Model the fold of this input.
Amino acid sequence: MTSSSTPRMHTYKRTSSPRSPPNAGELFTPAHEENVRFIHDTWLCVLRDIKSPQNSERNDRGPQEYVEKNPNPNLHSFIPVDLSDLKKRNTQDSKKS
Done:
Protein backbone atom coordinates (compact mmCIF):
# COMPACT_ATOMS: atom_id res chain seq x y z
CA MET A 1 0.00 0.00 0.00
CA THR A 2 1.39 3.36 -0.93
CA SER A 3 1.13 6.44 1.19
CA SER A 4 -1.25 8.03 -1.33
CA SER A 5 -3.80 5.21 -0.88
CA THR A 6 -3.62 5.27 2.91
CA PRO A 7 -6.82 6.76 4.33
CA ARG A 8 -6.25 9.89 6.35
CA MET A 9 -8.28 10.87 9.36
CA HIS A 10 -8.77 14.60 9.77
CA THR A 11 -10.51 15.61 12.94
CA TYR A 12 -12.20 18.91 13.46
CA LYS A 13 -14.55 20.42 15.95
CA ARG A 14 -18.11 19.80 14.92
CA THR A 15 -20.09 22.86 14.03
CA SER A 16 -23.53 23.01 15.53
CA SER A 17 -26.38 22.04 13.27
CA PRO A 18 -30.11 21.57 13.82
CA ARG A 19 -29.58 17.78 13.75
CA SER A 20 -26.99 17.53 16.50
CA PRO A 21 -26.45 19.45 19.72
CA PRO A 22 -23.20 21.37 19.94
CA ASN A 23 -20.50 19.86 22.12
CA ALA A 24 -17.16 21.57 21.73
CA GLY A 25 -15.30 18.58 23.22
CA GLU A 26 -16.36 16.10 20.52
CA LEU A 27 -14.33 15.59 17.37
CA PHE A 28 -15.75 14.09 14.18
CA THR A 29 -14.32 13.39 10.75
CA PRO A 30 -15.88 14.95 7.65
CA ALA A 31 -16.84 11.41 6.57
CA HIS A 32 -18.73 10.90 9.83
CA GLU A 33 -20.65 14.14 9.36
CA GLU A 34 -21.46 13.15 5.78
CA ASN A 35 -22.72 9.74 6.91
CA VAL A 36 -24.91 11.28 9.61
CA ARG A 37 -26.34 13.78 7.12
CA PHE A 38 -27.01 10.98 4.59
CA ILE A 39 -28.78 8.77 7.15
CA HIS A 40 -30.84 11.68 8.47
CA ASP A 41 -31.94 12.84 5.01
CA THR A 42 -32.67 9.28 3.86
CA TRP A 43 -34.72 8.57 6.98
CA LEU A 44 -36.81 11.69 6.34
CA CYS A 45 -37.49 10.38 2.81
CA VAL A 46 -38.53 6.98 4.20
CA LEU A 47 -40.92 8.60 6.68
CA ARG A 48 -42.39 10.75 3.90
CA ASP A 49 -42.83 7.72 1.63
CA ILE A 50 -44.49 5.65 4.37
CA LYS A 51 -47.01 8.41 5.05
CA SER A 52 -47.68 8.94 1.35
CA PRO A 53 -51.14 7.79 0.18
CA GLN A 54 -49.44 6.26 -2.87
CA ASN A 55 -47.54 3.84 -0.59
CA SER A 56 -50.60 1.60 -0.18
CA GLU A 57 -50.78 1.16 -3.96
CA ARG A 58 -47.28 -0.33 -4.24
CA ASN A 59 -47.13 -3.36 -1.99
CA ASP A 60 -43.77 -4.77 -3.09
CA ARG A 61 -41.85 -1.55 -3.72
CA GLY A 62 -40.66 1.22 -1.47
CA PRO A 63 -40.44 1.28 2.31
CA GLN A 64 -42.75 -0.93 4.32
CA GLU A 65 -43.51 -0.50 7.99
CA TYR A 66 -42.77 -3.58 10.10
CA VAL A 67 -45.58 -4.75 12.35
CA GLU A 68 -45.23 -7.65 14.79
CA LYS A 69 -47.45 -10.59 13.88
CA ASN A 70 -47.45 -11.79 17.48
CA PRO A 71 -46.81 -8.79 19.73
CA ASN A 72 -45.14 -9.40 23.07
CA PRO A 73 -47.86 -9.04 25.74
CA ASN A 74 -45.29 -7.64 28.19
CA LEU A 75 -44.91 -4.59 25.94
CA HIS A 76 -48.60 -3.67 25.63
CA SER A 77 -48.18 -0.78 28.07
CA PHE A 78 -44.87 0.43 26.59
CA ILE A 79 -44.79 4.17 26.02
CA PRO A 80 -42.04 5.43 23.67
CA VAL A 81 -39.79 8.16 25.02
CA ASP A 82 -39.04 11.26 22.98
CA LEU A 83 -35.27 11.39 23.47
CA SER A 84 -35.00 14.92 22.10
CA ASP A 85 -37.51 16.18 24.63
CA LEU A 86 -35.82 14.26 27.45
CA LYS A 87 -32.43 15.74 26.57
CA LYS A 88 -33.91 19.26 26.42
CA ARG A 89 -35.45 18.81 29.87
CA ASN A 90 -32.18 17.45 31.30
CA THR A 91 -30.24 20.36 29.79
CA GLN A 92 -32.70 22.87 31.26
CA ASP A 93 -32.54 21.16 34.67
CA SER A 94 -28.73 21.28 34.69
CA LYS A 95 -28.79 25.01 33.86
CA LYS A 96 -31.09 25.67 36.83
CA SER A 97 -28.66 24.02 39.24
